[in-house]
From TrEMBL:
Domain of life: Bacteria
Natural source organism: Pseudotenacibaculum haliotis
Subcellular location: Membrane
Name of the molecule in the record: TspO/MBR family protein
Protein's membrane topology: Multi-pass membrane protein
Entry keyword Zinc: no
UniProt cross-references to Pfam families, sorted A to Z: TspO_MBR
PANTHER family named among the record's database cross-references: PERIPHERAL-TYPE BENZODIAZEPINE RECEPTOR (PTHR10057), TRANSLOCATOR PROTEIN (PTHR10057:SF0)
Transmembrane regions listed in the UniProt entry: 45-65, 77-95, 101-122, 129-151
Keywords: Membrane, Transmembrane, Transmembrane helix
Chief subcellular location: membrane
Secretion signal span: none
Family: Belongs to the TspO/BZRP family.
InterPro entries in UniProt: TspO/MBR-related_sf, TspO_MBR
Lineage: Bacteria, Pseudomonadati, Bacteroidota, Flavobacteriia, Flavobacteriales
Amino acid sequence: MKKAALFSLFFAINFGGLALGMWLMNNGPQSNWYYDLNKAPWTPPSWVFGTAWSTIMICFSIYLVPFFTKNYSIKKLRLYIIQVVLNVSWNYVFFNQHWVAGGLIVLILLTSLIFYFFFIFYKEQKQTSYFLLPYMIWLCVATSLNLYILIYN
């Protein structure tokens, strides 16, 4: 029962973060600003973003249950909170403030943190570490998209 409750908690926090991020976007991908940007040729269709983030947050919620039940520490909690803040803030920095370089910085920090989760906690999370792969792959794609916009606009 404890695992189901933890999964529900992380699911709510992770999807709540996505909702907050969407709210902070200020029209985001539907804005004239974003529409007029020179985007990377590999930019996926808009429906992919919602599907990807939903999949990522489900997998991340699964990963977080043993992450917090095995060797719980304040350090792990702080890292998770930093992850939530970085994930939410990218939407505000990039879409709301139109600060492409700042968005890239946020993505690099977030990507580094998720890779840190994978490599540093791999030994204690062997069974669930691979649930981070969708997040890791998507952050690499998102970073490349953000970088392309920074370079070619």
